[in-house]
Amino acid sequence: MPETVNSLRALRESRGWSQGRLAKELGVSRQTINAIETGRFDPSLPLAMRLAHTFGRTVENIFILKQ
């Protein structure tokens, strides 16, 4: 089964934001951000789109499907 990897932690850290700050910006819990960053959780499409908008990227630029 393909695995999804993401650059969320690097993007968040490049802005100097904590997981809590990003969670507040998106209206989710800090635990959700942690789970996405560590690959334990793939976000819903609306959340992935909000993440992309927040960082000025495309969803495909943040989330990469590895074969």
Succession of helices and strands: EHHHHHE
Distance between the termini: 8 Å
Strand order of the largest sheet: 1-2
Q: What composes the largest sheet? A: 2 strands, antiparallel
| Average pLDDT number | 96
Rg value:
11 Å
Characterise the protein shown here.
- The protein has 67 residues and is mainly α.
- Helix content is 57%, strand content 12%.
- It is built from 5 helices and 2 strands; from the N terminus they run E-H-H-H-H-H-E.
- Helix 2 crosses helix 3.
In brief:
The protein has 67 residues and is mostly helical.
Feature tags:
mainly alpha, 5 helices, 67 residues, 57% helix
Task: Describe the secondary-structure layout.
Layout: E1 3-6, H1 8-14, H2 19-26, H3 30-37, H4 45-55, H5 59-62, E2 63-66
Antiparallel strand pairs: 1-2
